[in-house]
User: What shape does this take?
Amino acid sequence: MEDLLERWDLASQRVAEIAGETAGKTGWQDYFHRTAGFLKFAAETGQRWQSFTLEEKRERNRQLYEDILPSRYAHSYGNPAYAAEKLGECGRYLSFLYSELRGMIVYAMENRIWDMTVCCELFLEVYGVFAQEGAANPREIRDILYWYVSDYCEEMIERRIQEQLDPACSFAAKIIMEADLQTPDYLYDFGEWITDSERQVAQFLSGLSQDEIDGMARTYTEGYRIGFLNAHKDLSKKKTVNIRYCLGFERVVHAAILQFEQMGLQPVIYRSASHIVNKKQHHRIGYYGHIPNNQFEYDHRGDAALFLDEDFVQRRLRATQEAYEKYKDWADVHAGPAVMEIFGETPFTPENCPEAFALSESQQKLQVFCDNQIVQITNRYIKGEERSFTIIAWPVPEIGENFPEIFQEVVKINTLDAKLYEQIQQIIIEALDQGERAHIQGRNGNRTDLTVAFHPLEDVHTQTAFENCVADVNIPVGEVFTSPQLKGTNGVLHVSQVYLNGLLYRDLELIFKDGMIAEYRCGNFVEEADNRDFIRENLLYHHETLPMGEFAIGTNTTAYVAARKYHIEDKLPILIAEKMGPHFAVGDTCYSWSEDIPVHNPDGREVIARDNEVSLLRRQDKSKAYMGCHTDITIPYDELGHIQVLTAQGAVTILEDGRFVLPGTEALNEPLDES
Assistant: This one.
């Protein structure tokens, strides 16, 4: 530790000197002056945080994040296009460096001296190249950045896995359990970007009674507990639960922690990744505040292109294996994630940035291989057959002026009568089990024309192909689903507009042949090649193709009506949207890594459709069986012509022109009739 502190003192002092230089602020000198100033300011902020007044904390928070906000992004070195314009061939390398160094904010807030030190040392090493006489060589800059990632990936990965498993590492839990949550002032202590949205959520929740807060939390924690119960998994063997959420909901999280503790579970609450080694494109996994600029995140989604090669992949896999082995005792008692999503943010439509890094075709294959291997390592230590999850979503004020009403409507949606839905959905399942396949037809401009094949049942009295989903792991209630048989699943899936993983897809069309995506297109960009690249990267995750991993019929017409009433269809998360019509998941099945665990519906029948022809490859080669993704695509009721079950005796219609017509399901139309 003494050596580390000495390194930190030397590095931070030199950075401060560069920040204080005033001569020659053009070109690369401006970049290093501004970036050094940021590093110095972030470190000082962390060191002095407890001495600041509330107003000073607010101002510091603004200053730390203002450079990448949309209003400043055109002239930020975080923008690869601007960096390339000002710094030439070295521009995108220095933009990568800038992005990596922004982690200094959270390292300083958490007093993570090692992370702060290696960031500053990296900055100084690159600065040293530019400070020499003559033009800087882009190759030399690239090599410095490559070896930084390669040399330190073991430490970065080990720290990440430790904080995912060890409750002692939870910086956030201490704030949640000790802060005064009746005012939003505590939000700045996390070190994330805080806006009016997070403050308003915290303020809104502070106005609810403790009984209301406990009820919101109990919906979430009981869903988690019941998920273990329904899957016949032993929760008593587990000691930790990972809570993922967005800042502002601390009162609910506080209540959830107390409820989980009654189940014998300690909270593990880790921040979304800061080091490039631990990031997955532009996605955030863990807790976070307001995203300062989605375009900045999107522009840096391909930064791994700078270092992703076979040597790095092998190093990363070894580091992951060694870290899990080191923390295997914690991994063995980890129960899985409990996730609180948010929705209502301003929809984001990305713009292409040619100057940004992008994975080559060979790197895409390496990424797929690496992700697959990491999932396998993880499942050896956090066993799929022993863990579970739950997920729920809440709106935020950006959803509109009716936020309080919408929030209460979502509380209603999340707490619908599960028993009523169970009974109605059982009727739908009995009809589906009569057939060999379903036909789904679109209307009102929707071009869907799709046949989905079912797994055959040997005994309809003891077996079923569809699971009756009753709001345990997947809240709210409202779907029946199956893993389709791939052979015989053919046709076109089309949606006019859909948000998937935070990205807008316009006029999305997927064509399936024997259950695999054979062709794909969308209308986001003028050039067809850009549209294909967009889908391949963000929906196929660089796979050549994906199987249809799920076919489901959503039954939550209450959610559908609320969405139409408040005009928030485009802002709903897939968690709710998937319950508002039929949906189709591309990627793994819902049972991935747990296919051999028996699953039974409330009527006692076993759900036998837990595999498909791709997942069955696990018996020979797990690397060919799992895609590492599962993305639901929903056709809303107003774009649905019909869903028919095709049986040996003819067609049985379940939905027609967006309404349930199967006898016994009429109650699902009542919200539609009342709207």
Observations:
- The radius of gyration is 26 Å.
- The mean pLDDT is 94.
- Residues 416-674 form one domain.
